[in-house]
Amino acid sequence: MAAEQHNPLTQFEIKALVPIQFGQLDFSFTNSALFMVIAVTLATAFLTIGTRRGSLVPGRWQSMAEISYEFVAGMIRDNVGQEGRKYFPFIFTLFMFVLFGNLLGMLPYSFTYTSHIIVTFALAAFVFVGVTVIGFMKHGLPFLKFLMPTGVPIYMAPLIVPIEILSYFTRPVSLALRLFANMTAGHTMLKVFAGFVATLGVLGVVPLALVAALTGLEFIIAFLQAYVFTILTCVYLNDALHMH
Amino acid sequence: MPQFDTATFLPQLFWLTVTFACLFVVVWRYALPRMSEVMVARQRHIDSDLEKASGLRQEAEAVLADYEKALAQARSQAAEAVKQASDEMAAESARRHEAFGKKLSATAREAEGRITSAKEEALAHVSAVAGEVATAAATKLIGTRLPAEQVESAVKAAMRSRD
Which stretches of chain B drop beneath a pLDDT of 70? Predict the structure, then answer.
């Protein structure tokens, strides 16, 4: 039992809080779902409190909400341009969802839903499919020319095209893996070092200090990975809209 | 690793879809329009304030221009008045100067006339005296009284050759 609790991977276990079954299908409300609900509630509160008064001179909350707005709007403006405005709500939601998931995971005893590959992969796949659909809707079949960069001699096509196809289909995988791996590794590492604190006795101060430092680092990573996920989405969207 | 337990995939995906969709609706329908509305309103307010400020500034500049114009006008009027006065003074001075000059030259001419007539008179007396002296001297020297006309013409010739 004790060994079980010290297993650094225990924190990632999915536990059904409210079992819901539809025939064979499992839609149980799990700890992951609980934290998704909390994250969405907090994000909604953050955006609602921030904009409730809508005063001319923003207060603290309004300022924070406006900074997040400007931050994502700036990302889209710099990476996609004017045409990206349409996708602002989705990209903003994506940023908020990942950011709040990452940050919520920093609370002790909480659950980090972004540390699950299925969640990050679902988000990445949605972005990938969406961006591909947007590309074909905007350019039609010529969007396939994306796989053959301009200026490359035609005889290079047998080499270039498979590489481009591979690199294109690797995008959702790398997008999903990056976030999942960062979150999982960070939280596992914290847990491992935290485990040493108790077992090393007085010397436990050393891993304790390390855990304190790593916690700070994890906060940075939580923000940075949300940023990276969002900016890569912007870059892919730009590729689809403007083809390189 | 619990992450690769496929049995947990479906409930995670289901709740991910539900919660993400909820947040998306909040962001799309409420948060972003509200925020952009506030920010646009702020920008408009700032713009209108700036516009007002530039309007006031223009007004102030117009007032300043008017003031400077009035000042320049007053200055030119003053200069004109000064010029007029000095012209008048110069004319008056010239007139008086001329009158005085005329008066002076008239006096001078009168004096000159007087001097000339006195000189002529003196000269006339001189030839008469010279004739008388010459006659007296000749009488004393040669004992004969020379005729007056001869003496007169000789005196005249002598005086002419002296000139």
Answer: 162-163
